[in-house]
Amino acid sequence: DEVTIPNNNILEPVNAEQPPALPEPNQQTDPLLEMAEQTQQGAEYAPPPIEVAVNDNALPMPEPYPQGNGDAAALSITSDPNQQGSEHVGLQSGGVQRSAEDLRYLTLGSSVTWGAGMDVRYFAYPYLLSEDRTHISNLAVRAAGPKYPSVCIQSMVTEEATSAEGSEDYDVIVLEYYMRGYDGLYDLAQRLRKRYPDAIIILLRL
């Protein structure tokens, strides 16, 4: 008869406590660590795609303006009473109807708006808003936030109006400041809105 000899080399634990399970690894990676690892490997870092949340309750987008109007895309379309069946782009400010070519611009900001870093500061974008330089008042202050103009905007506008063909009337106002430079921004916007209730105010954040 065959005799089966048990294998005594196999030991089975009796009432052994199982070690606690390790937590599931976090699937989200730190973008800074990922960038550092790819940089060490000599690869070019590619940032992850940005997810944009969609608000279903958002207001519908307005109808697009006709093509070919240039800067007038931000203005309203009105009918010319002198020309039957025709339309032109213009803005009514202070009871005065102006065409796109006659709009007056006021820009406020810091060094970028002033034109720092350019060979000729008058090539900065504020001076390109209109073909007529007399329609543009660039009151940007280098290395300064919105706090200064929020306190002195009246004197700044009045002094600018003393120049040749100057005026204190503006149809479009552009504010350009750094994202963290909010000190005085809301006060400045409120004073401008009170002074120019019909003007278009545009805020650009760097």
UniProtKB/TrEMBL annotation:
Region spans: Disordered: 1-31
The UniProt regions of compositional bias labelled Polar residues, in chain numbering, are 1-10
Q: Which domain of life is it from?
A: Eukaryota
Its name, as the record gives it, is Uncharacterized protein
Native source species: Helicotheca tamesis
Please spell out the taxonomic lineage of the organism that makes this protein.
Eukaryota, Sar, Stramenopiles, Ochrophyta, Bacillariophyta
